[in-house]
Write a structure and sequence with these properties.
5-stranded antiparallel β-sheet; 3 domains; 15 strands; 11 helices; 30% helix; Dna Topoisomerase Vi A Subunit, Chain: A, domain 2; alpha+beta; DNA Primase, Chain A
């Protein structure tokens, strides 16, 4: 008879952080109860973008736009294996014998089931400028003034595993699916549905950005440019982004200079021969926002820098 896994028991019994350690992965950074790793699900991660919440045991890979419990991790990590074999690998790595955490009798409980997914409640949405921490963070990125028209201060609470709530605030913007993309100095994430963000402009040109900070950096450098812009919010949306961009006569790409960004840029150029890789304007920097911060730190006038940039896009 085929064994049926008790997935609830496995999910509650196997610690993801311990599993990662047994697989040879250590976090490179810890912040606010969250551990950040170089993604072991992708081979193109140059900065820690795989995040694990220690309390909830949940993970999220920002490069993939995907996350979940230790079960979803096993299915992603051993994606080449059938479902049953992937779960068996998880059990063996964690020191359990296949079958040891399966087919256990279910206890009848009157209490509600433990919620592994943290729920959130949005308390308040405010315009920028009322929270010094948020303002200082955006100023450190060099985009506070231009962000006024695009970002909000979002105040919300997250329900933790022990049923307490943690109050959180962040700079935020709503994506096309009404999910909130949230950023502060300690973390980045998304509340509810992940989606792209479209900034309407003229119909003759569209700019593609990985994240909102890069779009805002571009907007600060070129405030009068009338182009439309599409912020992917995750490179997982590259294919639908290209579908939307291909109807524009001109396309400029401003992706990161890491492996994922370069690969995505190459895919865009291969799909749309009329597209231009404009990342040369922030050569020797990972992204456009990093370049902007460098210019500001050196006291360079942005108007003159922008004029120089306009000479530099390469095909």
């Amino acid at each position: 008879m085929e064994i049926k896994f008790d997935l609830i028991n496995i999910r509650e019994s196997i610690d993801l952080v311990s599993t990662l350690k047994l697989l040879g992965y250590e976090p490179l950074r810890k912040s606010g109860g969250e551990l950040f790793y170089l993604s072991m699900l992708r081979d193109n991660d140059s900065s820690p973008s795989f995040c694990v919440n220690e309390k909830s045991g949940l993970w999220y890979d920002h490069g993939m736009g995907k996350g979940g419990s230790v079960i979803e991790f096993a299915l992603s990590y051993w994606a080449h294996l059938p479902f049953k074999d992937a779960i068996n690998e998880l059990l063996k790595i964690s020191g359990q014998l296949p079958g040891e955490l399966v087919n256990r009798p279910q206890q009848v409980k009157q209490t509600s089931l433990l919620m592994r997914e943290p729920s959130y409640i949005i308390r308040e949405v405010k315009p920028l400028g009322t929270n010094n921490s948020i303002s200082d963070y955006l100023k450190s990125r060099g985009i506070f003034e231009v962000a006024q028209d695009y970002l909000k201060e979002l105040y919300y609470s997250i329900k933790l595993q022990d049923n307490t709530r943690r109050e959180v605030f962040a700079a935020a913007w709503q994506n096309e699916l009404d999910g909130w993309e949230v950023r502060n100095i300690n973390f980045k994430g998304c509340l509810d549905k992940k989606g792209m963000s479209f900034i309407a402009g003229n119909d003759s040109k569209i700019n593609l950005f990985e994240g909102m900070m890069d779009f805002l950096s571009w907007k600060k450098l070129f405030p009068s440019d009338p182009s439309s812009s599409l912020i992917l919010n995750t490179l997982s949306f590259l294919t639908p982004a290209m579908e939307r961009a291909k109807v524009y006569p001109a396309v400029e790409v401003f992706f990161d200079h890491d492996k994922a960004g370069r690969k995505a840029t190459a895919e865009v150029l291969a799909s749309m021969p009329h597209a231009i890789d404009s990342s040369a304007i922030y050569a020797n920097h990972n992204d456009l926002n990093e370049k902007l911060q460098n210019l500001l730190a050196k006291g360079i006038q942005l108007n003159s820098a922008a004029q120089e940039f306009k000479k530099g896009p390469i095909r």
